[in-house]
Amino acid sequence: MIISSISERIATIRASLPTSVRLIAVTKTVPTELMRYAYAAGIRDFAESRIQETASKQAELQDLSDVTWHLIGHLQSNKAKKALELFQWIHSVDNLQLAQRLNQLASQLGVNPQVCLQVKILPDANKSGWSVPELLADLSDLNQCKNLQIQGLMTIPPAGLHDAEIINVFNRTNELAKEIQSQNWSHIKMQHLSMGMSGDYVLAVQAGATMVRLGTILFGQRS
How far apart are CA 42 and CA 46, in angstroms? Predict the structure, then answer.
């Protein structure tokens, strides 16, 4: 039965994770019925990529009042206001202009979202995010975004890497976070590393991930 299989998968993965690692269920295209099964199995963190889909799901799941919603998809500036209304966490802040726009809107809305800065450790034309030199150059400006709770880094390795290359990406992300933390910015904290998906979360945890974003391994292949 699909209910028991989701519950069993969640239980198995939870048992394999350190208690310090937050399990975030990626529910893009997952029906709300299955999300309720995941909730019943203890999931309280749901991640989505699309504004419209999230708004519809939140309307259907409004009785689940203790859920935290995470945005993990690329965010266009013209959808930033709606994102702040829907999500408590934004993992995919991928450039300075977006951060500044979110900061301005957060002030207007009276919210203080928790965000991760998306970084590309290796060049990847298919992913958004700062390169390492770009991020380091923008830290001073990011530190002025006082309405954002900058909590750490998010990364996604390029497709097609071997395990050794993947864990190197994750380790370098961890090292970058420590380098930024050592600079003692007043409004930039590096308490979290959002890294690891269904195919590589075990490697991410080995490298210090504090949040893993799992979809396929929980819910099966998406249509």
Answer: 11
